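CO-FOLDING WORKSHEET

Operator: S.A.
Ligand of interest: zinc ion
Run index: 369
Mode: holo prediction, single chain
Checklist:
[x] sequence pasted
[x] SMILES validated
[ ] output reviewed
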Amino acid sequence: MLLKEVVGQDAVKAKILGSVNQGRIPHAQLFLANPGAGGLPLALAYAQYITCSNRTETDSCGQCNSCKKHSSFTHPDVHFSYPFVKDKGEVATELIADWRSALKANPYMNYQDWMQFLGAEKKQGNIPVKETREIIKSLSLKPYESEYKFLILWLPEFLGTAGNVLLKIIEEPPQNTLFILVAENSDKILGTILSRTQSVRIPPIQKPELKSALMEIHSLTDEQAERMAQISQGNYRICQDLLVEAESPYFELWKSWMSACYLVKLNESAILAEKFHSMSREEIKGFLHYGLELLRGIMVVKYESSLNNWVGKEFDFIQNFNKLNIPFVHLQSIINQLETSIYLIERNSAIKMVMMDLSFFITKKIKKQ
Ligand SMILES: [Zn+2]
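OUTPUT RECEIVED:
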């Protein structure tokens, strides 16, 4: 991972890079991170930076042999350790393929995400004694390719008393060995490990940093990003959830319905009519209210796109729908018709009839010319 791919944390980055550039890398560090603040991504980017053969003052090159191996989490001088469940293996390396895939999918994953990835969300993960012995064995070898050998140990909270096995090697490490422990809760780590490591505190991501990352990475508008940065309190993992949740369960159905109307696909409309028929009166009402909001979003975006509060797929849908250039009066008449339909459904009209009429009406107003 490149440092610039880590969201915010400019102050922490400056601190850890400073020690590298001054040639004073502490041999054992504990990255003590707030949830979703980027402890693991920072550790990954930091290790990559240290071994990059062409680094600048602020980042790795991303191109050299070492960077390529780091970015696929396959560098032979990095030993990864993490909690796991015993029916998946006895030591962490047995799960390395899963670990790499999970990191590729989301370096901001948390413990629950990882357990879910392993299909073990109902089980208790840990880092057993056997794994600590494996760590010692692996670190006793000389570095293969770079100057340093690394242990990136994610969530030492799960070591329990097995952590005692590591005390000696942390205190008297083999030459050129760097320990990076990434934790969230120092209360659950052995005091003897805490006292042997240098802490790097990783606070919640600062609001302005998080906001600009949300605008850049997820194309949120200024206002949306401001709101999300505020709600998530500097936790990027929460932002990821919010981005997904921002999408309604009705979205896909609404999108297929509009597409069938626009392209005048009567077969698809008939299939959708069946689907509507199977929904409860409350669900249909919810669905139509949702559609009303989306249509209002489209009306707004025509004049003032910054007032559009939608994100993700819905935001894309609104942008694309807007490009169809459907006349304003037609959109307004669809909105009126949706309101009428909700009124009829509330008064017990047959759902199938109401929705069929509505399909014809919308088709007439938006169909591809
Ligand atoms: Zn490089």
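REVIEW:
The two ends are 48 Å apart (CA to CA).
The beta strands are 28-33, 78-81, 149-154, 177-183, 198-202.
[x] output reviewed
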